[in-house]
Design a protein that fits this description.
Blueprint: H1 2-9, H2 15-21, E1 26-30, E2 35-40, H3 43-52, H4 54-65, E3 70-75, E4 89-93, H5 114-125, E5 134-137, H6 144-155, E6 164-168, H7 169-179, H8 184-191, E7 196-200, H9 212-224, E8 229-233, H10 245-251, E9 255-258, H11 264-278, H12 284-293, H13 297-313, H14 320-328, H15 340-351, H16 355-359, H17 365-382, H18 386-392, H19 398-414, H20 416-431
Parallel strand pairs: 2-3, 5-8, 5-9, 6-7, 7-8
Antiparallel strand pairs: 1-2, 3-4
Helix pairs in contact: 5-6, 7-8, 11-12, 11-13, 15-17, 17-19, 18-19, 19-20
Length: about 425
């Protein structure tokens, strides 16, 4: 088993790497009971393996063996049968119910995001609530979903994953309104059977104001029973002035961390990792070009897939001319499912107003500016005609839309703050 596993690992690791951390391991394989026992040569090796290799190894072991296995770790150096000393074993499941790609090992970090990642790792080790709730804030594309699912995957190694509720705010609302047909008592009792609550896209609570009191009930149950809650949302949850006061205060009882947007260093690291996994040979200059040009991870994934497909299907050796040709036919533009409604939602969230204010007739300064910004973004990102935009914004005349778009376009030339705001909103729209 060890040799065939080593061959599998060679797909993503060099032979020298495996000599360093894999070859010293001892293996016992029990196929009938779906159990693998891994022996370490000594305690120092065990400690180093846990901090540096274990996440990656377990993900690869899961891919190799399939679902349903457990792995136990044993320090063989601690065994001395003549003195009756037995090695202490640590037993863990190696399933990844929330996706093999979502691990701490695959989350690229730098100094800016060290504290959020360290905190998330600590939460995954707890069984009750040192940081409860644990709230992850950050803009779209910063890795909130990756991190929340990594915590869930880690917890599932020690707890049955059926005890974990992992869902978005939309899914939680659907559980109440659709699955239990609007019966809050049955829905609540069902939810209370879980030991862990993971809630992504919490900012969408704004769309369900009637649900806020129910969230207070949910919060009280999980907090009072020392059941871990992990919540992810855009921006800082403390800035959500639309929250009920009792819910707002409860969210402040735990630990709130903020993820920064992936910078150039992170994007370079991501490209390098994908190149190793896909065996795609890109030069340092090509990697830097990609990292500078594509700031959204979704576009990075797409362009790397396109380069990989070209290498596999057309040419084994990707020339600089091929690279430039593929890039010249790839633009970081709006996704096919981006709509005026989504853009209005992002803008209204930023300006702390309702979407209906953008389509209404109110002319307060804050609303008027938000409406003009939304019209400008719809025009530049979707190339929608002025009459169509007028209809989307509540039946406005096309001349009103034209005036708004031109005004924002002229203002941003001299207003660097507005220019940065438009850039930020564009990124949020692409990631929404």
């Amino acid at each position: 088993m060890k040799q065939s596993l080593r061959t599998h690992l060679l797909q993503t690791n060099s032979d020298d790497d495996l000599k360093r951390w894999f070859d010293p391991l001892q293996f016992e394989y029990d196929e009938e009971n779906k159990r693998v026992t891994v022996g370490f040569p000594h305690a120092f090796f065990a400690k180093w393996f846990e901090s540096e290799i274990q996440d990656r190894f377990e993900a690869q072991l899961n891919m190799y063996l399939g679902a349903g296995y457990v792995v136990s770790y044993r320090d063989n150096g601690a065994v001395d049968r003549s003195k009756g000393v037995q090695a202490v074993e640590l037993v863990k499941r190696i399933d990844f119910p929330f996706g093999q790609e979502f691990t701490f090992d695959t989350f690229l970090i730098n100094k800016k995001n060290y504290f959020p990642i360290a905190s998330a790792k600590e939460v995954s080790k707890q069984s009750g609530s040192l940081f409860n709730p644990f709230i992850i804030c950050g803009p779209g594309g910063s890795g909130k979903t990756h991190l929340i699912k990594s915590v869930g995957n880690e917890i599932s190694k020690k707890h049955d994953y059926s005890a974990i509720f992992m869902g978005t705010m939309d899914e939680l609302n659907s559980l109440y309104t659709i699955q239990f047909r609007g019966d809050p008592f049955r829905a609540r009792n069902h939810l209370f059977e879980y030991e862990f609550l993971f809630l992504d896209d919490f900012q969408k609570i704004r769309e369900y104001p009637h649900f806020q009191q129910e969230l207070v009930n949910i919060f009280n149950h999980f907090y009072d029973n020392k059941k871990q809650m992990v919540i992810a949302c855009r921006d800082k949850v403390t800035s959500y002035d639309f929250l009920d006061e009792s819910l707002q205060s409860r969210l402040g009882w735990g630990l709130i961390v903020t993820l920064k947007e992936p910078d150039l260093e992170i994007r370079v690291g991501y490209i390098q990792r994908q190149c190793r996994l896909k065996r795609l040979n890109l030069s340092k200059e090509q990697i830097l070009t990609l990292a500078q040009r594509f700031t959204d991870f979704r576009y990075l994934q797409g362009i790397l897939l396109k380069l990989f497909a070209f290498k596999e299907l057309v040419k084994k050796d990707l020339t600089q001319k091929d690279f430039q040709h593929i890039l010249s036919n790839t633009e970081e533009k709006a996704t096919d499912d981006l709509t005026p409604k989504k853009i209005m939602s992002v803008v209204s969230e930023h300006f702390n107003i309702h979407v209906k204010d953008l389509t209404g007739a109110k002319r307060h300064q804050n609303i008027a500016q938000a409406r003009q910004v939304a019209m400008f973004l719809c025009r530049t990102m979707l190339n929608t005609s002025y009459p169509s935009l007028g209809r989307a914004f509540g039946g406005k005349d096309h001349s009103t839309v034209l005036y708004s778009v031109k005004k924002i376009d002229q203002l941003q030339e001299d207003d660097m703050e507005l220019k940065q705001l438009l850039k930020t909103l564009k990124q949020k729209c692409r990631m929404s």
